[in-house]
């Protein structure tokens, strides 16, 4: 069950992503298989480009992190490494947790299939990645819970030609427009991970708010959400400070899980059926991944707007932020609270200038205009708090301040490192 009644403008939300994205399950009845590329190449990733190439060097579509992302690149076949082995290409592995539990494990179903047992058991499993990739402790644990030893996954660091490359289909994937789908095999992978851990015995984990404040600097004002949820009896948890098994034990005890929309909310994959999920959007868009994850289990999903993120980068960079959060009327209403006096709103939005000036200091011309319905919402709350529009001269002063701050920071680092050496 998905409820969008607590969004600022649910008609706009439906127009933005489509009614079916919220309410219809993206579970597809698809028979998964695999393809065989003979005399193909595996290409290490350069930014988003890499994956698998055919014998003639042409790119094998959708062998990047997810479908329709990146491509191959030109390379000199004569300098490629050559291996006479048959290998299973398990995909690109990534450092972001949200990708770990979706895209990165989307081909792992194959390792538990009849085809693998009968034809490919013992065949080397390889992956590609960008140069900075390292297995995080939680990703190692995730693979362990799946019954996969990360040390047995072989990273292809150089362009290499293989005798045969086996490429399993994905069980979590997207179409050209970015909509995500999953198959029953993906649900089975998630259930396998969850089943390996017993629920926590501590009652305090029955209500959890997952915070991003301990590692992310792009969430302005999230501390106010922390305080609010704490006042409602929620344990404030920074997921990255716990092992995966510790997290799973909490989630399996949890009856209500709240978070801002993103990787943290993706952990709703591991709660029990029937759990309440409170998702606070970052701005006027919604994570395509979460829209699909909402339907992996039978949950009670509530989207609750409690942001004033009025300036967002263009589509391909929209996750960069920063994002602005506060305790909105919508959030108060969900918990059965009435409207508050002006001093409450003034306190709630006292750091809005900080958010506004961070954006102004970046002088980013690639930000998209705020949709009209959300302009009206921003105007409404700023008036409630008695905040006037920022004067241009103040923005210019602030720009100069940030530029000076950056120069001083660079100078300090250079001086400090020089003295250290």
Topology:
Layout: E1 2-6, H1 10-17, H2 19-23, E2 34-38, E3 41-46, E4 49-53, E5 81-92, H3 97-100, H4 114-120, E6 124-128, H5 137-145, E7 153-155, E8 160-168, E9 172-174, E10 180-182, H6 184-195, E11 207-210, E12 219-220, H7 222-231, E13 235-237, H8 244-253, E14 256-260, E15 276-280, H9 288-293, E16 300-304, E17 312-313, E18 323-324, H10 329-334, H11 342-348, H12 352-362, E19 367-368, H13 372-385, H14 392-420
Apparent shape: globular
How many distinct domains? 3
Strand content: 15-25%
Helix run count: 14
Q: Main beta sheet: strand number and arrangement?
A: 7 strands, mixed
Report the radius of gyration as a whole number of Å. Answer: 24 Å
How many extended strands?
19
Q: Flag low-confidence runs.
A: 417-421
Describe the overall structure.
There is one protein chain. By secondary structure, this protein is of the alpha/beta class. It folds into three domains: 2-26 and 197-390, no CATH class; 34-170, no CATH class; 393-421. It has 14 helices and 19 strands. The strands form five sheets. Strands 2, 3, 4, 5, 6, 7 and 8 form a seven-stranded mixed beta sheet that branches. Strand 15, helix 9 and strand 16 form a beta-alpha-beta unit. The N and C termini lie far apart (60 Å). The model is unreliable at 417-421 (pLDDT under 50).
């Amino acid at each position: 069950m998905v409820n969008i009644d607590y969004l600022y403008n649910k008609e706009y939300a439906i127009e933005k992503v489509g009614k079916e994205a919220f309410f219809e399950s993206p579970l597809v009845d698809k028979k998964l298989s695999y393809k065989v590329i003979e005399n193909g190449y595996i290409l290490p990733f350069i930014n988003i480009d890499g994956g698998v190439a055919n014998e003639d060097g042409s790119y094998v579509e959708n062998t990047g992190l997810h479908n329709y992302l990146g491509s191959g690149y030109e390379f000199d076949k004569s300098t490629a490494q050559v291996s006479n082995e048959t290998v299973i290409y398990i995909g690109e592995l990534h450092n972001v947790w949200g990708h770990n539990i979706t895209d990165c494990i989307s081909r792992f179903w194959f390792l538990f299939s009849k085809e693998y047992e009968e034809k490919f058991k013992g065949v080397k499993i390889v992956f590609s990645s960008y140069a900075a990739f390292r297995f995080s402790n939680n990703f190692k644990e995730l693979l362990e819970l799946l019954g996969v030893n990360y040390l047995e996954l072989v990273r292809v660091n150089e362009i290499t030609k293989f005798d045969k490359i086996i490429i399993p289909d994905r069980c979590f994937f997207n179409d050209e427009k970015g909509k995500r789908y999953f198959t029953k095999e993906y649900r089975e992978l998630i259930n396998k991970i969850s089943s390996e851990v017993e629920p926590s015995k501590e009652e305090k984990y029955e209500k959890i708010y997952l915070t991003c404040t301990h590692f992310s600097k792009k969430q302005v004002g999230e501390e106010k959400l922390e305080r609010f949820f704490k006042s409602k009896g929620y344990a404030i948890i920074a997921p990255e400070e716990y092992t995966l098994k510790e997290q799973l034990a909490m989630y399996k005890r949890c009856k209500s899980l709240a978070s801002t929309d993103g990787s943290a909310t993706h952990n709703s994959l591991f709660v029990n059926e029937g759990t309440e999920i409170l998702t606070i959007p970052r701005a006027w868009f919604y994570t395509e991944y979460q829209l699909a994850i909402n339907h992996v289990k039978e949950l009670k999903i509530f989207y609750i707007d409690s942001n004033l993120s009025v300036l967002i980068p263009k589509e391909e960079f929209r996750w960069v932020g920063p994002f602005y959060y506060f305790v909105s009327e919508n959030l108060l209403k969900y918990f059965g609270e009435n409207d508050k006096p002006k001093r409450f709103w003034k306190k709630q939005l006292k750091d809005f200038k900080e958010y506004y000036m961070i954006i102004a200091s970046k002088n980013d011309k690639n930000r998209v205009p705020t949709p009209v319905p959300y302009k009206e919402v921003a105007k409404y709350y700023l008036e409630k708090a008695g905040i006037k529009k920022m004067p241009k001269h103040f923005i210019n002063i602030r720009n100069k301040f940030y530029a000076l701050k950056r120069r001083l920071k660079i100078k300090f680092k250079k001086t400090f490192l020089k003295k250290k050496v």
